[in-house]
Amino acid sequence: MTEFVNYRVVLHFKDGTETLGVISNVDSSQICLGSDTYQNSLVRDLKVVQLPEMPKKKHGSGAAGTHMSTPQSVSRADTPKVQKQPDWGIDNGNVKALQDFDFAANLAMFDKKSVFADFEKNKHTDVLARLVSLNKTSDKYDNDENVLTGQNSDNWHNIGSLSQRLTLPTPSAVPAKPSGLAKLYSLRYEDESAVVPLASPVQLLEIERLSAENFSANQKALTEVCAANLYLLILTQILGGSRLNQRKNHNLPPLVLLLVGGGRSSGRAFALGRHLTNHGVRVLAYVVSADMLEGDTLELCQQFEKCGGKVVSTPFDELLDILLRQLDTPVELIVDSLQGLEGQLSDLYYTAESMATLTRVVGWANEPQQSCKVLSLDISAGLDAGSGTASLPALVVHSRYIVSMGLPLSGLVHAYNNGTLGDDVTHYAVDVGVPNAVYRSRSHLRKFDKFWFCAELYMRHVAKSAAI
C-alpha cells in the first residue's frame, strides 16, 4: 500500500471526530499520519484532499555516446499566444499519473461487522410494524398477475377428538362491560304492538315437564324441534342462506364454533350443530370440561360427531392454534351454550381448572373481533336467568344475538334494567314444539295461552326503553 504514502487526507472516525494529515505509512491494520498512528477499525471514512507532487522531468542532454538528430528550429512568430492555460492538465493529468487503485487492499480495510452494528443501533422501527409491512399483500394486480398461489393447508379432517384431557393455562383478567344509564325496559314484538310475556326459569322447566308428562313431548322431541328451527334462523338471518349452496360455491364452507358446558342448552347446541353439519356447514364444538357431558347431552355429542362435527376438549391455546393456523376458514358464528337457565357459572364450573379455562374462553369471545359473532342460547353466559345480575362481571359473555328457546326469560329485561345488557343485542325466539294446551293446564301459566308461532318458526323481539 505504499502508493498512498504522501497523500494528504482527512480521516473520519466512528466516534464522530476527524483529523487531517499526510500519510507516512499504511498497511492492512493501521494508518500513520506523520508520527501519529491509528487503527483501521476506528476509521469510518477517508477523504483525499491533496495528491502528492509529481517529480519534474530533467531536460538534460541524452546519454553519452548517443547521437540525437536535432530538428531545425521553426519560426512561430506568427502563432498567437495562449492567453489562459488549459485546466485539463491539472486534474486529468494528475489522475492519469496515478497508479492503479488497489481494490483488494481497500476492501480489506472495510469493517463490515461495525457497519452493520451501526445499522442495528440506529434502527428505531418496531419489529411488529416491520412484519406488518412485509406481510401486506398487494390490493391491485396487473393483468398477468391474477393467478392464485398455492392455498393454505386446511386441517379440518385431522382435528382431535373429545377424549383428550385438559391441562389448563393461567387465567387472564377480562374487563367488565360498562353499565348504561338507568332505564326501564320491556321486550316487545317486532311490530311493537304488545309487550312479550316473560317466563321465569322455574316456569320454563315446568312447561317442559308438563309437555313430557301430559302430551308425550319429551325432552328429546323438544330438542329436535328446537334445533331444526334454530338452524333455519341461523341459516337465513346470520349465515347468508343461498351462499351455502355448494353446487355454485367453490369456497370452503363457513365455520361455526360451539362453546359447550353441560345440560339442556349444550344438548340443544349439539343438535343444532348436527343440523348445520348435515347442510354443509363446518361445526367445531369446544367442551370446557368433558366431565360435564353425561346422559342425553353425551348422547347428542356422539351423534354430532358421527354426522361429521368435530369435538375438542383441549387446553384453550390448542383451540386457538386450530382456529388460527390449522383451518383455512374464519369463525363466522360462535354459539354460547356455556350456561343456559339451569344455574350460574360458579355452580357449573366449580373446579379451579374448569374455571380457569372458562375465564380464557369468555375473555377471547369478548374481544371485538369475536363479540360481534356471539349467539347465546336463552341468556348470555354469566347472567342469572331469573334476576339478570352478574355475580362475576368478568365472566359475562357479550352477546350479539340472544335466542330464547320457547319463551323469553324474565332475566333478559332485568339485565337491561341493571345495565348488564347493551342496546346492540338482537333478540329472537324459536319454536321448540311445546303444545299450546300446556298453558291452559295450570292457572299461573295462562298468561302464555296464545299462539306464539303462527306461520313463523321463529320471531324477533325488540327491547324498548323508557328513561326513569
Automatic annotation (TrEMBL):
<dbReference type="Pfam" id="PF09532">
    <property type="entry name" value="FDF"/>
</dbReference>
<dbReference type="InterPro" id="IPR036652">
    <property type="entry name" value="YjeF_N_dom_sf"/>
</dbReference>
<dbReference type="GO" id="GO:0003729">
    <property type="term" value="F:mRNA binding"/>
</dbReference>
<feature type="compositionally biased region" description="Polar residues">
    <location>
        <begin position="67"/>
        <end position="76"/>
    </location>
</feature>
<comment type="similarity">
    <text>Belongs to the EDC3 family.</text>
</comment>
<protein>
    <recommendedName>
        <fullName>Enhancer of mRNA-decapping protein 3</fullName>
    </recommendedName>
</protein>
<dbReference type="InterPro" id="IPR025762">
    <property type="entry name" value="DFDF"/>
</dbReference>
<dbReference type="GO" id="GO:0000932">
    <property type="term" value="C:P-body"/>
</dbReference>
<dbReference type="InterPro" id="IPR019050">
    <property type="entry name" value="FDF_dom"/>
</dbReference>
<dbReference type="Pfam" id="PF03853">
    <property type="entry name" value="YjeF_N"/>
</dbReference>
<feature type="domain" description="YjeF N-terminal">
    <location>
        <begin position="204"/>
        <end position="440"/>
    </location>
</feature>
<feature type="domain" description="DFDF">
    <location>
        <begin position="89"/>
        <end position="125"/>
    </location>
</feature>
<dbReference type="GO" id="GO:0031087">
    <property type="term" value="P:deadenylation-independent decapping of nuclear-transcribed mRNA"/>
</dbReference>
<keyword id="KW-0963">Cytoplasm</keyword>
<dbReference type="GO" id="GO:0033962">
    <property type="term" value="P:P-body assembly"/>
</dbReference>
<dbReference type="InterPro" id="IPR004443">
    <property type="entry name" value="YjeF_N_dom"/>
</dbReference>
<feature type="region of interest" description="Disordered">
    <location>
        <begin position="54"/>
        <end position="87"/>
    </location>
</feature>
